[in-house]
Amino acid sequence: MKEQKDINIKTIRFPVALDDKIIKLTKKFGRGKLEIFGQMLEYFNKTGKDPADINDDLLKNALVKNHDTYIRFIRTQEEKLLIPIKVEIDRMVSSQIKIIDSFNSQVLKANKDILSGQTNQFVETEKLFKVITEKLDNKESLKLKFLYILNYFHKASLNASSKDKETLLQEARQHISKL
Known about the structure:
Elements: H1 16-29, H2 33-47, H3 57-159, H4 162-178
């Protein structure tokens, strides 16, 4: 059998208070002291952070830089996209308003023309109705006059001779023709 060589040949000496903090971390994360120590070193190595800098100015600077980058991006998008889109939308809205106003004025004019035509037609219909009413009244009047002539002829013919009946018939025809 081969002998395994121990890779843990280096040691670090630190105070008991620091060891208590490392033990708390190992219990919190469920890892060994060596693993926690290695991960801390890896973290500081990858991020480039200074462990002594509690405020982490590098992180602040990175955040500020990213924030500034985002703000510049948003302003660029605003200038390239949002402002031209808003200008075009405003132009389109004003164009639509003009179209709607034009359409409304044309519809209003057409409605006025239709109303005027309907009013004229109503006046003409009313005149025609009056004429028809007068004609009906005249017709009724003619009927009454005709009945009067007919009744007169009938009464006169009852007592008259046949020669007088002929004369009465002639008079009745003349009266009817005058109607």
